Amino acid sequence: MIYDVIIIGGGVIGCCIARTLSKFDLNIALLEKEADIASGTTKANSGVVHAGFATPREYLKRDMCITGNKMYSQAVEELNFSFQRIGSFVVALEDNQIKKLEEQRRHGAQDGVPGLEVILDKEKIKYMEPNITDDVVGVLHAPTAGIVSPYGMTYALAENAAMNGVKFFRNQKVRRIQHQNYTFTIKTGKKEFKTNNVINAAGMYGAKISKMVGLDYFSIMPRKGEYILFDRNAMHLNKILFPTPTKVSKGILVCPTVSGNTFVGPNAQNISDKKDIATTAAGLKEILEGGMKLVPNLPVRASIRNFAGLRAVPDTYDFIIDNTDVYGFINVVGILSPGLTSCYAISARVVDFLELLGVNTKVKEDYNPIRPKPEMFKDFSKKELDDKIKEDAAWGRIICRCETIPEKEILNAIHSPVGANTLDGIKFRCRPGMGRCQGGFCRPRLIEILSRELNIPYEEVVKTGEDTNFLVAKTKEIALHKIGGDIEE
Amino acid sequence: MKKYKADVVIIGAGAGGLAAAIEVKKENLEVLIIERDKELGGITLQCIHNGFGLKEFEEELTGPEYAQRFINQVIDLKIPYLLDSMVIEITKEKLVYAVNNSDGLIEVNAKAIILAMGCREKTRGAINIPGFRPTGIYTAGQAQRFVNIEGYLPGNSYVILGSGDIGMIMARRLTWEGCKVKAVVEIQPYVSGLLRNQVQCLEDYEIPLITSYTVTKIHGKDRIKGVTISKVDRNFDRIIGSDKFIECDTLLLSVGLIPENELTLQAGAELSENGGPIVDENLETTIEGIFACGNVLQVHDLVDMVTVEAKRAGKNAVEYINSRYSKELKKKEIIKCIPGDNVNYVKPDVINKRDISKEINFTFRVKYPDRRILIQFKDENNNIIYKRKKIYVIPSEMIELNINLEDANINPDCKSITIEVIPRPEVLIEED
């Protein structure tokens, strides 16, 4: 069979495009090289939906961001992911920074960012965000900025896309693309796919994929950012806090997550290794110091996890969204910040490109834009809970104690469209192991459940993919092997 | 919704919860145990090594054997219990809500509650080790569960960070399994677990113990491939040039335990600096009728000590129900117990003046080891209430003192007592 469109890359951009295209009467597939979608830059980023005033005016990404932000409202309604428009502050700590805030406000307002306001009344600032430093002299308030779970939204997008017929293929690393008679043949080493159109949303590896069809006009470099996440009980922020920006970055922010945690980060470090997501002692120190300038009482002792993510930084520093010279091959790469904000606007542009390429963009009759909200234990009233458990006993068996996640939510995560097939897949879909004990109690039970549901032995249950199995052998096996024995059943 | 009534609800069926339940039942009050796991016994069930019960039974038992003695009593006394049941809410009116998969939502109306939820292990995040986040990193207790309960080995070659008791016990356990334990690395200049474990688990098996070092980097992107360890100075900062690489496919963390007090907080009880609830001399929290005992209150050295504390909690809960104390009195007349020099925390956190004629059980830990010291209790005017010499103190050994403050001539208007462990001047003859 020949697909109409194949999307390479199962990050937020690839999945958003897949979902946007799923409304049309097309055969669509998405290929992801990792064991699960949302495994690359999507998994570890700030989860901020920017208002859009902060990007320089000459860039395409400014437009995409301002438009994309507005498109979130409808998306949330249809896809039921967690998103909160809590607003952001750009914080000025010195009088001379106010000028910069004023300029950003003026330009932002001209370009259609709603509600921007410079606030100089310290009392009002403190009222709006009590944790902010006493050194604040003013803030630029952007009420349309919000927070989202980047992977949570990606799962929602993928689920809805799959509901509407998009085929997801994971563990499919693209190795070669042949192009002949307007048909692309994509080889992954495991499978071969044919398609008339390719959308390259391969993130960090976007340049590599582009080169496979002979398009070598940009490069993508990783830039690492480190984060520290704090316990939910330790601090509650009302606002996203940015420092006044410098030329190189938006700076280290202090920000709440949709789950109620607080994080600090990211720093910005140009690196060469596209897999280097190691945190460093110096980096963690840097972000703590940076964060403390905005929030001096950061709950340092309540940190529960540190992690790093990469940004796919193109040499143009702007998004590369091109209907390329290779007919039917669309590049959607170099999507660094504010890429998460822009994804819906980017997808709309891809639709325009496909129309130009003569792809039929008639909305199919049975298109269902609604991805139902996943049922969650914590959302139920006591009465509902009681009924739910009567209906299905798996609601009454709590697996993750820190986050109060019952077995039913885990089973739903495994058996949803594009469901979890790794422990991290479960963790990122429904949070077991994300709490204070970081999986200390629930991991053995999760391994048991995944082993049972996927019908694989314990030793083959993995964290993220190949070579990330948790257990290596049954007890006595290693000792017996050493003395040349064997286990007798 | 299934409704139960009980005089005392016990949350947690580990060593603490079981002992407390038995104590209450013996006084002919109705008790209900709620346990989140599938069996009674708590974490002792995975502690298959011996060394339990020396104080309580004057016998050397394994963890499951120790637990079984209490489980048998629970069964003999026909104490009801709910398994696989997770408490999700405790109200100030002492309504306890739990869920399980057979009853659905459960509501228990209690006169008193004993919190016995135990503790959990500190994780990598809590100690902020930089580097990749590959598989192969476990807390020692999690590895213990995998090996002893599930019957699986998490790796072949190990480095263990932290010389806590579970870490040292797992070093020996894994060596028996034919695995290689390359080193136990401890950031402090001394071992943080019990001396007997250092000797029986490490020295007897020639497992290297490296003190004043910590893991500063984790290698490996998918599976852990090794760790860099570095010597640290007195402030635990890495000493440049001291890095060593150790190859391993598993890193176990035994870096400390934290009382598990989410429910306590949710119920509205206040916590103290050690992570456990604030309690008075009766082990009653800041919410009347809610008591705490065992590792949820403070992490103990030995399970036998948990049992003793839990029995006290059980007795006190019974006494509370039989003769409600006057709230009025309790609010006004208290003495605060404050940790002073080289004291990490003190239990109880407060003492009710009505009880100063009784013998009060004080437990506390020092922050760092010291020799030739004086334990001193002072009031807020620096009057010394009590003092005692000791040859040495170490953080891994809890200090327990039973003191009658009235006999010690405490000033009746005293508002607080500070407990300190201070060096004492050279004397010719040691008295203790």
Chain-wise SSE layout:
The complex is a heterodimer of chains A (489) and B (432).
Chain A: E1 2-8, H1 12-21, E2 28-31, E3 48-49, H2 60-79, E4 83-84, E5 88-92, H3 98-110, E6 117-119, H4 122-128, E7 138-142, E8 146-148, H5 150-163, E9 167-169, E10 176-180, E11 183-187, E12 192-200, H6 206-212, E13 220-230, E14 240-243, E15 253-256, E16 262-265, E17 269-270, H7 281-294, E18 303-314, E19 320-323, E20 329-333, H8 339-356, H9 382-391, E21 398-400, E22 405-406, H10 407-415, H11 423-430, H12 443-454, E23 473-474, H13 477-482
Parallel strand pairs in A: 1-2, 1-12, 2-9, 5-14, 12-20
Antiparallel strand pairs in A: 3-8, 4-8, 5-7, 6-7, 10-11, 11-12, 13-16, 13-17, 13-18, 15-16, 19-20, 21-22
Helix pairs in contact in A: 1-5, 1-8, 2-8, 10-11, 10-12
Chain B: E1 2-11, H1 15-26, E2 31-34, E3 50-52, E4 61-62, H2 63-76, E5 81-82, E6 86-90, E7 95-100, E8 104-115, E9 119-121, H3 124-127, E10 137-139, H4 140-150, E11 152-153, E12 157-161, H5 165-176, E13 180-186, H6 195-202, E14 209-211, E15 213-219, E16 226-231, E17 244-247, E18 250-253, E19 257-259, H7 262-267, E20 290-292, H8 303-322, H9 327-332, E21 334-339, E22 343-347, E23 350-352, E24 359-366, E25 370-379, E26 384-393, E27 399-404, E28 416-423
Please characterize this protein's 3D structure.
The complex is a heterodimer of chains A (489) and B (432). Helices cover 30% and strands 22% of the residues of chain A. Chain A folds into three domains: 1-81 and 148-219 and 315-373, FAD/NAD(P)-binding domain, CATH 3.50.50; 88-143 and 221-314, D-Amino Acid Oxidase, subunit A, domain 2 (D-Amino Acid Oxidase, Chain A, domain 2), CATH 3.30.9; 377-460, Arc Repressor Mutant, subunit A (Orthogonal Bundle). Chain A contains 13 helices and 23 strands. Chain A is α+β, with helices and mostly antiparallel strands. The longest helix of chain A has 20 residues, at 60-79. Chain A has helices at 12-21, 60-79, 98-110, 122-128, 150-163, 206-212, 281-294, 339-356, 382-391, 407-415, 423-430, 443-454, 477-482, and strands at 2-8, 28-31, 48-49, 83-84, 88-92, 117-119, 138-142, 146-148, 167-169, 176-180, 183-187, 192-200, 220-230, 240-243, 253-256, 262-265, 269-270, 303-314, 320-323, 329-333, 398-400, 405-406, 473-474. The radius of gyration of chain A is 23 Å and the shape is globular. In chain A, a hairpin with a 4-residue loop joins strand 21 (398-400) and strand 22 (405-406). In chain A, helix 1 crosses helix 8 and helix 2 (60-79) crosses helix 8 (339-356). In chain A, strands 1, 2, 9, 10, 11, 12, 19 and 20 form an eight-stranded mixed beta sheet that branches. In chain A, strands 13, 15, 16, 17 and 18 form a five-stranded antiparallel beta sheet that branches. Chain A has a four-stranded mixed beta sheet with strand order 6-7-5-14. Chain B is α/β, with parallel strands linked by helices and 432 residues long. Chain B folds into three domains: 2-120 and 258-325, FAD/NAD(P)-binding domain, CATH 3.50.50.60; 123-255, FAD/NAD(P)-binding domain; 334-423, Immunoglobulin-like, CATH 2.60.40. In chain B, 22% of the residues lie in helices and 35% in strands. Chain B contains nine helices and 28 strands. Chain B has helices at 15-26, 63-76, 124-127, 140-150, 165-176, 195-202, 262-267, 303-322, 327-332, and strands spanning 2-11, 31-34, 50-52, 61-62, 81-82, 86-90, 95-100, 104-115, 119-121, 137-139, 152-153, 157-161, 180-186, 209-211, 213-219, 226-231, 244-247, 250-253, 257-259, 290-292, 334-339, 343-347, 350-352, 359-366, 370-379, 384-393, 399-404, 416-423. In chain B, the strands form seven sheets. In chain B, strands 1, 2, 5, 6, 7, 8 and 20 form a seven-stranded mixed beta sheet that branches. In chain B, helix 1 packs parallel to helix 2 (63-76) and helix 1 packs parallel to helix 8. Chain B is globular and about 65 Å long. The relative contact order of chain B is 0.12. The mean pLDDT of chain B is 92. At the A-B interface, helix 7, strand 18, helix 9, helix 12 and strand 23 of A face strand 7, helix 3, helix 4, strand 11 and strand 15 of B.
